[in-house]
Amino acid sequence: MTDAIPSARRQELLDAAYRYVLTNGAADLSLRPLAASTGTSPRVLLYLFGSKDGLVREILRRARDEQRELVRAVLLERPADRDAVDRLWGWLSAPERRDTIRLFIEAFARSLHPEPGPWEGFAQTSVEEWLELLDELEPSPSPDRTLRLAVLRGLLLDLLATGDVDRITRAYRLHRHAMASS
Length: 182
Prior knowledge:
This protein is 72% helix and 0% strand. It has 182 residues and is mostly helical. The termini are far apart. 21% of the residues are buried. The protein has 9 helices and no strands. The model has no long low-confidence stretch (mean pLDDT 87). It has a single domain (8-181), classed as Tetracycline Repressor, domain 2 (Orthogonal Bundle).
């Protein structure tokens, strides 16, 4: 079956596989445990997604699409509000986002490998999508949007590594203050 032939079962299994990967990661994804967890067989997964790589690509597409839409909703909640990026940091750094951020960072890093396999293009596409989202905040995009994006990603890496929300949020606020002062 191909992407051009959607089915309710395929979508149901993609949703279940996405939840599984959020908890277990995607790097060492094995079809047998995934199939057992989702109530199907490896054969059905291969039929519906073409290959393990096809399934991983669909999971990553789903993750990126979902994250982009959720981030857009947070940023555009009050588009004229200058605190939109602060709301975004609060949303991203919330404990309930750890699995999503972990998957994002894992996919981002894997896509940078010389032979990225199903992760190919994830990082580049992600950067482009996030810059577009930041551009939506400002009528004329500023050159510091790349710096804002890099700072957010760096702080998220530190947050995943240490879990020290207070220290990292203070660093985020210091950066925001420095950017506002310049």
